[in-house]
Amino acid sequence: MNVRQMWKAKLEGLAVPRAGGRRASAAAAASFAGDSGRPSPLSRTAFEGQVLGIDPSLRGTGLAVIEFSAGRPPLLLHCRTVAIPQRVPMPEALARIHRAVSEALDGRSVQHVAVEQSIYVQNFQTAQILGSARGAAIAAAALRELPIFEYGPTRIKRAIVGTGRASKEQMQRMVMSLVGHGRTLAPDEADAAGAALCHAFTYRGEQ
């Protein structure tokens, strides 16, 4: 089994092999089985409750609320892409992002918020726009006094797919298999769900 299959099997409560045909597979199997001398990520999932994942962008912010409970796969409660046309002025776009995050939190028991970090931006103007979108999204959660955690894309890919070089398509497929969602998630929604999954898989108390 490869790493992705191991994640899926573990989440579904199935047995995970202790050894594989290749050294990498064996090491991964040992890690999942707890033979590495430290608890496996899922045995420590430690986190139970609802996480709001956010993939911020001025014109296409992704949102996903996932519930984590012991003994069952993650449950996707809500997902949305906040699509904002180019003709909408920036102040109004920021207001829509803030409002969408607030609506995602309304009526739910979200305990933590996980935000995908921006590692690379093309220029100062792009960084400024993206930073404004991030601020609008984070402010909506901060006003609820929710803990906010940030994760880089490489860390999220490693937690979900098993490699930091996974493609967006691989991420989409793996996220959908983990949450058992019936429809194809949009790229921004999958990224937001990936941030939430990464948080639940790697959270170890106060960070």
TrEMBL record:
Where is Mg(2+) 1 annotated to bind?
D55, D188
Q: What do the Gene Ontology cellular component annotations say?
A: cytoplasm; Holliday junction resolvase complex
What is this enzyme's EC? 3.1.21.10
Identify the SUPFAM superfamilies for this entry. Answer: Ribonuclease H-like
Report the subcellular localization: Cytoplasm
Cofactor requirement: Mg(2+)
Query: Matching InterPro entries, A to Z?
Result: RNaseH-like_sf, RNaseH_sf, X-over_junc_endoDNase_Mg_BS, X-over_junc_endoDNase_RuvC
Q: Does the keyword rRNA processing apply?
A: no
* Annotated function: The RuvA-RuvB-RuvC complex processes Holliday junction (HJ) DNA during genetic recombination and DNA repair. Endonuclease that resolves HJ intermediates. Cleaves cruciform DNA by making single-stranded nicks across the HJ at symmetrical positions within the homologous arms, yielding a 5'-phosphate and a 3'-hydroxyl group; requires a central core of homology in the junction. The consensus cleavage sequence is 5'-(A/T)TT(C/G)-3'. Cleavage occurs on the 3'-side of the TT dinucleotide at the point of strand exchange.
Q: Which protein are we looking at?
A: Crossover junction endodeoxyribonuclease RuvC
